[in-house]
UniProtKB/TrEMBL annotation:
Pfam families: FAS1_DH_region. Residues 24-148 form the FAS1-like dehydratase domain. This is Acyl dehydratase. Coiled coil: none annotated. The lineage of its organism: Bacteria, Pseudomonadati, Pseudomonadota, Betaproteobacteria, Burkholderiales. InterPro entries: FAS1-like_DH_region, HotDog_dom_sf, MCH/BMMD. PANTHER family: BETA-METHYLMALYL-COA DEHYDRATASE (PTHR43664:SF1), MONOAMINE OXIDASE-RELATED (PTHR43664). It comes from Melaminivora suipulveris.
Length: 161
């Protein structure tokens, strides 16, 4: 087996996100779906310190939500992980603004996915980046919306060759 030491800069990068020039208002994508597990909940509350009784006590009597609810921040983090791994990997420069609405609880055992719709693309004066707005709607396995948020991000553009 020989080792190829020549530069590979001309090869497309696997998993590369979209440049702002690839986007147009109205484009939509669906993320993968993921089931939220008890281990996810425990790891998240331990990492964040969100030690609220409804998250750490499976038999909490004072909870208004039946089942094992998870923090909205966990739902958001999972969906942003999908978006990062697919749409903005290597091209996302900054999250500029975020407006979020929690529409329904997500419970341990629920499977979540999202629809991402581009709602705005505004190139900056430099031209090598743009402000991209999107509406992200998160659904559970019953196709009920559980979260909706708008994200305004700074995305890189293609460099001139």
């Amino acid at each position: 087996m020989t080792s190829d030491t020549t530069p590979h800069d001309d090869l497309p990068r696997m998993g590369q996100g979209l440049f702002w020039q690839d986007l147009q208002v109205g484009q939509r994508w669906r993320t993968f779906r993921r089931t939220v597990t008890e281990a996810d909940l425990v790891a998240f509350i331990n990492a964040t310190g969100m030690l609220e009784a409804i998250f750490i006590d499976a038999d909490h009597a004072g909870g208004a939500i039946p089942g094992r609810p998870v923090p909205g921040a966990l739902t958001y983090a999972f969906i942003e992980g999908f978006i990062l791994q697919s749409m903005i990997q290597g091209t996302g420069l900054a999250m500029l603004e975020l407006h979020q609405k929690i529409l329904a609880p997500v419970l341990v055992g629920d499977s979540i996915e999202a629809v991402v719709e581009v709602t705005g693309v505004r190139p900056t004066s430099k031209g090598n980046r743009a402000v991209v707005s999107s509406l992200i709607t998160v659904f559970n396995q019953r196709r009920e919306p559980v979260m909706e948020y708008t994200a305004v991000r700074l995305l890189a553009g293609r460099t001139a060759t």
